[in-house]
UniProtKB/TrEMBL annotation:
Species this protein is from: Christiangramia sediminis
Top-level taxonomic group: Bacteria
Limits of the Thioredoxin domain: 66-214
Pfam families linked: AhpC-TSA (PF00578)
PROSITE patterns membership: THIOREDOXIN_2 (PS51352)
A GO molecular-function descriptor: antioxidant activity
InterPro entries, alphabetized: AhpC/TSA (IPR000866), Thioredoxin-like_sf (IPR036249), Thioredoxin_domain (IPR013766), Thioredoxin_ResA/DsbE_sf (IPR050553)
Classification of source organism: Bacteria, Pseudomonadati, Bacteroidota, Flavobacteriia, Flavobacteriales
This protein's name: TlpA family protein disulfide reductase
Length: 234
């Protein structure tokens, strides 16, 4: 009995602390479950009346009020090397953007992401997630830098995690998620879509500036603070 009591004294507080941490965390899928239907109702109405400024405002308010600050659920996807990968396998902050073969990236977006991945590869894991079959993803992957992890989810074969369905169908494509090292969502943004007549260089610069600003404000500073703390501890 004394041995059991000692085990509880040493292990018990740790277990309860872990449980409390889990209870305090709000996850992406939970927030969507509680708030998505209300957002969809308002957004559908705005789009019906072609009030695109209102629709944009609703999206920004919805993501900032309910989704940013929550933790992205862990889920599985496939690499092009037929390896199953978990989101939480990435240990650095994550730049995650979702695409599909029927969803064309905005003009200048891919070159901007490639450039940012080259600049920040030591600090951030860049992940491009396609909702598609492997053969289509393999062709699309050729546009992206080797500094980017290209992964995919084939929904016809993956009927698992709830978050997989929600990621694809709730916020539209493409959507970019910035996650800190603990997978807490620090920013959610939609792609910049310059007017059709915009030249390639201008479109690239617009995308680069928008994405780099978000990265520097939401991921890099956080990473550098953690890195500095680790150096001091050592």
């Amino acid at each position: 009995m004394k041995k059991l009591l000692l085990v509880f004294l040493f292990i018990g507080p740790t277990v309860f602390s872990q449980q409390e941490d889990l209870q305090e965390k709000s996850f992406f899928s939970q927030e969507l479950y509680m708030h998505l239907s209300d957002y969809n109702r308002k957004a559908d109405l705005a789009y019906r009346f072609k009030d695109y400024d209102k629709a944009k405002e609703l999206f920004e308010n919805f993501t900032s009020d309910h989704l940013e600050g929550s933790y992205m659920d862990d889920f599985k996807f496939q690499s092009l090397k037929k390896k199953e990968v978990n989101l939480y396998d990435y240990k650095k902050p994550v730049f995650l953007i979702t695409y599909a073969s029927w969803c064309i990236p905005s003009k200048g977006e891919v070159p901007a992401i490639n450039e940012l991945a080259s600049e920040y590869k030591d600090k951030i894991d860049f992940v491009v997630l396609f909702w598609d079959k492997k053969d289509k993803v393999k062709k699309l992957a050729e546009k992206f830098s080797s500094n980017i992890s290209i992964v995919y989810v084939d929904e016809s074969k993956n009927k698992g995690a709830y978050v997989v369905k929600q990621l694809k169908h709730s916020l539209g494509l493409p959507t970019c998620f910035l996650l800190d090292k603990d997978k807490r969502i620090t920013d959610i943004r939609r792609s910049v879509f310059p007017p059709m007549q915009t030249d390639e260089e201008t479109a690239y610069r617009e995308n680069y500036i928008a994405l780099e600003t978000s990265i520097s404000q939401n991921l890099v500073n956080e990473y550098e603070e953690v890195y500095a703390d680790n150096i001091q501890v050592e």
